[in-house]
Amino acid sequence: MRYIPHTPDDQKTMLDTIGVGSVEELFLTIPENLRLRELLDLPAPLAECELKERLESLSQANTNLSAVSSFVGGGIYNHYVPAAVDHLISRSEFYTAYTPYQPEVSQGTLQTIFEFQTM
Description:
Layout: H1 8-18, H2 23-26, H3 48-59, H4 84-88, H5 92-95, H6 103-118
């Protein structure tokens, strides 16, 4: 999907709809001394591959929690999560109470939920 910013006409229509004269008027409740009036001092933009490399190099400063003792997670760390879990947890039968009406189908769903939750 391409990013197409709102045109001045689009902005005017939106502001008219909510009864505001300008975008600046939307921010009048923010005290003047807290508003940023200059551009942010940001580095030049990077291409996607350059940004990925930069973020990966920054992440090297993090501690690898699989190599050290970690007490984060309250006892649910150092466990294996099968690759199928991402697919399974997106299925509605795992996040709703719905089961099919036919007992022969319902039993399989219930058995699967039981196996998944007790793994």
